[in-house]
Design goal:
- By secondary structure, this protein is mostly helical.
- It folds into 2 domains: about 5-115, RNA polymerase sigma factor, region 2, helix turn helix motif (Rna Polymerase Sigma Factor, Chain: A), CATH 1.10.1740.10; about 125-210, Winged helix-like DNA-binding domain superfamily/Winged helix DNA-binding domain (Arc Repressor Mutant, subunit A).
- It is about 65% helix and about 0% strand.
- The chain is built from 11 helices and no strands.
- Helix 4 (about 70-85) crosses helix 5 (about 95-115) and helix 8 crosses helix 10.
- The longest helix is centred in the middle third of the chain and has 21 residues, at about 95-115.
- The protein is elongated, with a radius of gyration of 20 Å.
Length: about 220
């Protein structure tokens, strides 16, 4: 949430006073102090929390959309939802972990809404793939491979896309994904297996496996 977006929340009456809550000490002292003050209605304290964690939350939501305006809107949604839920935060995990759970679910909802208007995600232009193939002797450029991977992921249903995005780009384990989404670990493992199989089928159909040196 940018400073402008935060100010919009204030002017819309989204920051209101509430009763204080107690925390169990797992949260860092600085965050604990600002969370407690925010719940009591201290607008400046919540502004500090927003500024402290805006960058990592924006980075996470960039995984869900490469449109800057849309990404900013999603970040705003996260911090608005976080504010209204702040009184439920008990410090069982660092504040950033808690915010990442909200952000992940926000991004997932965004994908589900977009999926109602299906459109096939275009793979990179052929000359990009050709360049990757030409450079294979020196190794595949991670950035170029990531571009193709993003396009492939975009062709998967939201659940599959979410699990593989968190695994490949956020380096999350199955337990962390389960905690972020409120799913069972067994569901995440099953989803990952199915998603890899679907993506392999797409990559084979597009003749990408050998060209990119990928194995599944």
């Amino acid at each position: 949430m940018t400073t402008v977006a935060y100010q919009r929340c204030l002017t819309r009456g989204m920051i209101e006073s509430s009763a204080p809550v107690m925390y169990n000490g797992h949260v860092e002292n600085t965050d604990w102090s600002d969370v407690t003050a925010s719940v009591k209605g201290d607008d400046d304290a919540y502004g500090r929390l927003v500024r402290r964690y805006e960058s990592p939350i924006t980075g996470l939501l960039w995984r869900f959309t490469r449109d800057p305006a849309q990404c900013e809107e999603l970040v705003q949604q996260v911090f608005v939802e976080a504010y209204f839920s702040l009184k439920t935060y008990r410090g069982d995990a660092p504040l950033l972990h808690w915010l990442r759970r909200i952000a992940t679910r926000t991004g997932y909802r965004f994908w589900r809404e977009k999926a109602r208007e299906p459109q096939e995600t275009a793979l990179p232009e052929f000359d990009v793939l050709e360049q990757i193939e030409a450079n294979q002797e020196d190794g595949i450029d991670p950035a170029e491979a990531a571009t193709v991977l993003q396009a492939l992921l975009g062709r998967l249903p939201p659940d599959d896309r979410l699990v593989l995005t968190l695994m490949y780009f956020e380096e999350c384990g199955t337990q962390e994904i389960a905690e972020r989404m409120g799913w069972s670990r067994a569901k995440v493992k099953t989803q990952a297996l199915r998603a890899r199989r679907k993506m392999k089928e797409i990559a084979e159909r597009e003749h990408l496996l050998e060209r990119l040196g990928w194995t599944f």
